[in-house]
Structures are given as C-alpha cells and as structure tokens.
Amino acid sequence: MTTVLIFHEVDDVEHWLDSPRRDEVFGPLGISIQTFIDPTDDHRVGLIADVPDMDVFQRVMASEVVAEAMQFDGVRPETVVMMVES
What we know:
alpha+beta, DUF4286 family protein
C-alpha cells in the first residue's frame, strides 16, 4: 500500500466535499481516501489516498474518467500537486 498526498484548489469546497465522484472512481480500485480542507483558504483542499497499486492509480489519474470527475467536482487541474510516500 502506498500513501499519496494530493493538494489542489476547487471552485466550491462544499460541492467538492459532497461529491460522490471520488468514491465512484477510486472505491472499486480499493483506494481509500480521506479529505481535508484548508481553514485559511476557501478554495484549497487535500486528500490522503491509500493506494494498493500505483500503476493502476497512475493510469486512472491520466484517464478521461478522472478528467470528467475533476471537472464535475470543480477541481482546478493546474493546481494539482501530488506527493508519494517514500
């Protein structure tokens, strides 16, 4: 299992928090996710993802399915920063 930290900005934090898309996309892959919000920035959020297979995760992250989910969730793609457990 690999732990991945992901930070990015969103248009609407409440919409992002309430969205079912994370579970729909990542749940079937066995990826569990915890969500976080930045209390000092109304648009900055973060995730901790426990990823069982990084190759699958990377392929999914590059897919149209994730691009559509990010658009639905109001994620600003240019702000995504990902860190992988060393």
